[in-house]
Amino acid sequence: MNETFGTRLRARLDERGPLCVGIDPSPALLHAWGLDDSPAGLERFSRTVVDAVADVAALVKPQSAFFERWGSRGIAVLERAIADLREAGTLVLLDVKRGDIDSTMAAYAEAYLDRGSPLAVDAVTLSPYLGFGSLEGAIKSAVANDAGVFVLARTSNAEAATLQRLVAGQVLAGAAAANAGHRPFGPVGVVMGATLPELEHSLTDLNGPILAPGLGAQGASPADVARLFAPVRHAVVPSVSRAVLADPKRLRARTLQYRDECAAYLTPETAGREH
């Protein structure tokens, strides 16, 4: 039997510490790195990030949009990055935020979660705003392929607060129901911003991982993450992008710094690991 996504994620978090690193090759970052805003620049950026973090991050999150804007040439770069990360034993969370009706959702699931797809990853982000039930096909595909999904619940962007407050409870209830009976995590994680002032819903019954974006450039610290998610620290994966991507010369060092600080606050027994 293949390992489930939850089993693989728990193992990587225990081995490497609780940190997700984004690959966000925006035009601004490409220029900051002295790279052309081109498929060649995209390739150089992605290769540098993969080489720097693949062996130390539990989870790596490419932002699909920055690859998609270059069409087939960008997708080819994304496919290579995914393959290289998975070969290094790093779990890949593709940030696509898909959400649609049944047949379209099934096609998205086939593209990203089917083991035979060239874009197959360990997990994807999903948007629940056509109703949590619209995600059923993707969740079933995740289970069948030992993969996972992370559903937007309460993200770190302020403009989403009003809408997400209305539906976050339904998202969390749906995720908890889908995760029932799975150990150590179910296949459905949620996205909860690390910059939230407080949690408005309990997460103790979720039985799934929590992706917490907002670390670093958006203002959240590892201590903030530990405070906000105190009852479920074992399940939180803080996510950092710009704070480690800003300087390619310090990329690995900054990743290690954030990883070890997060480990110290969220899993104290892992503090002081060898680099």
Question: Would you write up a description of this structure?
Answer:
The chain is of the alpha/beta class and 275 residues long. It has helices at 5-16, 27-32, 39-53, 64-68, 71-87, 102-113, 136-144, 161-179, 222-228, 242-245, 251-266; strands spanning 20-23, 59-62, 91-98, 123-126, 148-154, 188-192, 210-215, 236-240. An eight-stranded parallel beta barrel has the order 1-2-3-4-5-6-7-8, surrounded by seven helices. Helix 9 (222-228) runs parallel beside helix 11. Residues 270-275 have low confidence and may be disordered.
Name the strands of the widest sheet in spatial order.
1-2-3-4-5-6-7-8
Main sheet characteristics: 8 strands, parallel, barrel
Structural class: alpha/beta
Number of strands: 8
Strand percentage: 15-25%
Inertia-based shape: globular
Topology readout:
Layout: H1 5-16, E1 20-23, H2 27-32, H3 39-53, E2 59-62, H4 64-68, H5 71-87, E3 91-98, H6 102-113, E4 123-126, H7 136-144, E5 148-154, H8 161-179, E6 188-192, E7 210-215, H9 222-228, E8 236-240, H10 242-245, H11 251-266
Parallel strand pairs: 1-2, 1-8, 2-3, 3-4, 4-5, 5-6, 6-7, 7-8
Concise structural overview:
It contains 11 helices and 8 strands.
Write a concise keyword list for the protein shown above.
275 residues, alpha/beta, 11 helices, 8 strands, 44% helix, disordered C terminus
